[in-house]
Amino acid sequence: MDRKNTVRAAAAQIAPDLTSREKTLAxxxxxxxxxxxxxxxxxxxxxxxxxxxxxFSFVLPPVLSGREHVRLYEEAVAxxxxxxxxxxxxxxxxxxxVALGVNERDHGTLYNSQIVFDADGRxxxxxxxxxxxxxxxxxxxxxxASGLRVVDSKVGRIGALACWEHYNxxxxxxxxxxxxxxxxxxxxxxxxxQIFADQMEVTIRHHALESGCFVVxxxxxxxxxxxxSITPDxxxxxxxxxxxxxxxxxxxGKHLADPITEGEGILIADLDMSLIVKRKRMMDSVGHYARPxxxxxxxxxxxxxPMVASHPSSSHIAPTGSNTDGHNEHTDAAFDxxxxxxxxxxxxxxx
Length: 351
Description:
By secondary structure, the protein is of the alpha/beta class. It has ten helices and eleven strands. It has a six-stranded mixed beta sheet. A five-stranded mixed beta sheet has the order 6-7-8-9-10, with helices on one face. Helix 6 (about 195-210) links the parallel strand 8 and strand 9. The longest helix is centred in the middle third of the chain and has 18 residues, at about 195-210.
């Protein structure tokens, strides 16, 4: 696809409504409108903004978190659903690419999911965080590598990772190897304090430099009233402040606008896409600076499934996308994955 010369990008640092998915969604739709009114062609929202990031899990012991966990289930987002339809419609109406973090409910499990809508409203990416961090493991299930994809959009090739996935160099390299132009980063914000913001800034600037891409990062925000509603303990409330670094970074590792570190707001910057070539001419991590004959990444990008039929019934109609022999390619791939997990297989490649 033809790359645009300049892309106007926006990163939103806003607070969720901690009582209602619909109220948080209304905030998202309003922010999309405001960003588009300022000429934005891409907008990025914080990690699991809809309905809200599970801040409670960071400050409450597991024995006391059940009620809030259930409430998160009740307000979580099915994909697709009326919630995703509303965001798709807003993207289409305003001609803007939207990257949104959601708590996705898939039957009995919640996932930290990133969804990207192209400017025509099509959902072009849905991925799940591959390993939830620390306290999050009590809340979300694990994703798989099927979402480690870079997708074409109106504004260029987009890849996405959530929070500490940026500390997984192989996950980052998977996206780099697919030549992302714009990297979507999403963090919760309003956690841990200034050290979290400092670490976040180092992380996203390093990825921009290493990938030779732009990074658009969004973090969430909590008001004092919201913090008190999560925990009355003043000591624990300190753990729910700071840690905000909504920023837009160039392939040269530079801030393109002053980051938002407190309060709510929309950060907007113009991305000069020629800077990608300028950076990669000097250092292309997956091109002339790579040595794939010495070091390369192998990724298992097959979706994981909880059950596969080892002998599909011939009486069943072959699903769309099946092979001509009657076997479903996705089922076969999943069965192969299960076999891989049961049997140690030594693979060697010709040198």
